[in-house]
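Supplementary notes for students who missed Thursday's class. We covered one full example, reproduced here. Read the sequence, then the structure, then the short commentary at the end.
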Amino acid sequence: MSRQVVNTRFVLPPIDQRGNPPPLEKLPPVNDTPPELEIIVERPPDQFLRRPTPPGAPERAASVVSAQDVLNVIRPLVGLTENPPGSNRTLIGQWYGFDGVPWCAETVSYGLYNAGFNDGAGHITLVEPTTDRGWAYVPFLEKAFRDAGKFDSNPRVGDAVIFDWNGDGLGDHTGLVESINDDGTLNTLEGNVDSQLKRERRGLRPVRGFCHPPYSGDSGSQPPDHPRWPGRLITLSTPHMTGNDIRQWQQQMAHRGWGLGVDGDYGPRSHDVCVQFQTEKGLNPDGVVGPMTWDAAWTTPVTP
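Structure (token representation):
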């Protein structure tokens, strides 16, 4: 059996891509008890909430980070507790810079950042983060990956799983998928569960979907076929240029590892990424997506 349909929404990956879970008889029962939910919008103080500086070499980060790298950052922290219990104060919150708030999304950010998705200068190199360290609020984490075309209902090892425990259509908890069981349940690493960072076995009922970081060796992160240049110069203007060609270019840049949302709108962020990409590839850094910049997005090698 190469793939298994769990229900109408979720499809398990091939057996050899499920993270070698323990035998079912050795697993703990499925925990269907909701953890502390993020039901109030959490945002850092204004002086901390800022648009991250565009990373210097996001392709390099995207090409070397594996799912196991991220999981290996979090595994030694299993058992980490809030101090004092019930306070939401943890070493992870201190690292993030926004302590004393629900910290499940900060835990995911900690794993991704410290496994290598950063530029070495304090900035995470993933899609549209809320801060330089990632995300502290689950719906913002989901939106960033959804806008980049990296969110769906197919679980993979290393994904950030988004839960909606109260069924209101908004993510309220997250964790990392450590492995996937044959019965469709997930073995996860989650912060902010019973005031701890814990391993859990979760069912799929409360799951909204999965955020897919661009891990090395992930066939799902490979770029699409090289399309022909659409024939117009894409440049920053007022009002912004929009269109499917812009969305297609943004999607390709996101595939390459650049932290760029995919919305079909060529705004300041798209312009900044274009300039950095052009500089890295020895092109004229004018921020205009012309035929050379367009082709380079598909034909030049990802920075090793």
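Commentary. Residues 223-297 form a domain with the Muramoyl-pentapeptide Carboxypeptidase; domain 1 fold (CATH 1.10.101.10). The chain has two domains: 8-211, 223-297. If anything here is unclear, bring it to office hours.
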